[in-house]
Amino acid sequence: MQKLLVLAAHPLETKYFPDDIDLVLIGVGMSAAAVRTTEAVLTRCPDPARRAELTVLNIGSAGALRDGLHGVHEPSRIINRDVDEQLLRAAGIPVDNVIELGGTGPVLATGDSFVAGGPARDALAARADLVDMEGWAIAVACRHLGVRLRMVKHVSDAADEAALAWAEKVEVSAVALGQWFRASGIAAR
Q1: What is the pTM (predicted TM-score) of this model?
Q2: What region holds the Nucleoside phosphorylase domain (predicted)?
Q3: What CATH number matches the domain at 3-184, 3.40.30.10, 1.10.3720.10, 3.40.50.1580, 2.40.110.10?
């Protein structure tokens, strides 16, 4: 029987989710996300042979790096935006910096810094469509542990200066993510 584990960074993002789901708040940033995702998976499925029975659903808000991008999205690819691929490759170090999730959704760039406009945002927009702070770490943990992953992000802001008001904007994301979850029927599977 398939089990569902829902992961979110912040409690404000899960405000409209049912109380009876298996939900773990993993915290903000890649280190917390990697550790708490791994702990949650190993607690629920210590036997690697049973991990095919678990699906991790990561939900959360994200900043849009493309004009006109809004609403709920399932990323098709995730990149670690904190890795300087060119420099590492020039040093002869192989880089595994992309995780394919499938589908045709936008590219998600994950990093530990909050993106609120400026040159960092402009540079990221050339490589990705959305930006968050946990997706890459969750994807790496799930891949390493052999667990199925589905990722759903709602655009809360444009990753510009207005993103600093995230706590005020996340209510819209919470409503949209809760509606998506109920409509998806994923919890009933």
Answers
A1: 0.93
A2: 107-163
A3: 3.40.50.1580
